[in-house]
Amino acid sequence: SCSYQRFVNCYRCFYKLQPQLTRSIYDQFISQLQTSIKEEIQEVKNEGNLEGLFSSLDKIVEEAKDREEPAWRPSGIPEEDVRSALVPYFLKHRSHLRRVLREKEEENRKVAESVLMGRDRIAELQQLIQARQQAWQ
């Protein structure tokens, strides 16, 4: 392999004397290096609780499969990030408040009509009472 050839080039004198031993040393070196790297990776995983993080990331990815809109990503500019996150929320909230305001205005209009109708009815009843009172006298 290419890496073995580089190893041989570095230790050419030793290789000329004992090629089998050089190959054995190379194989042992590569094996120990791979083991060491795997142990380091496992240690980093254990220290950072990466297994739990990876499983929660997998869960988030699974939940997001049905979403049509893209996930939010930071742009690196805090003002734009805040704006992009808050403006849709505030627009939705404003829409909700406008709808509630329209409902309350409609409700108030109906109550005002009811009050006016009640006042008209009271005025009619007062006139009827006065007419009957005069007729009785």
TrEMBL record:
It is found in: Chromosome, Centromere, Kinetochore; Nucleus. One of its GO terms (cellular component) is MIS12/MIND type complex. The gene is Pmf1. Its main location: nucleus. This is PMF1 factor. The keyword Cell cycle applies. Pfam families: Nnf1 (PF03980). GO terms for biological process: cell division; chromosome segregation. It comes from Donacobius atricapilla. The keyword Cell division applies. The lineage of its organism: Eukaryota, Metazoa, Chordata, Craniata, Vertebrata. Keywords: Cell cycle, Cell division, Centromere, Chromosome, Kinetochore, Mitosis, Nucleus.
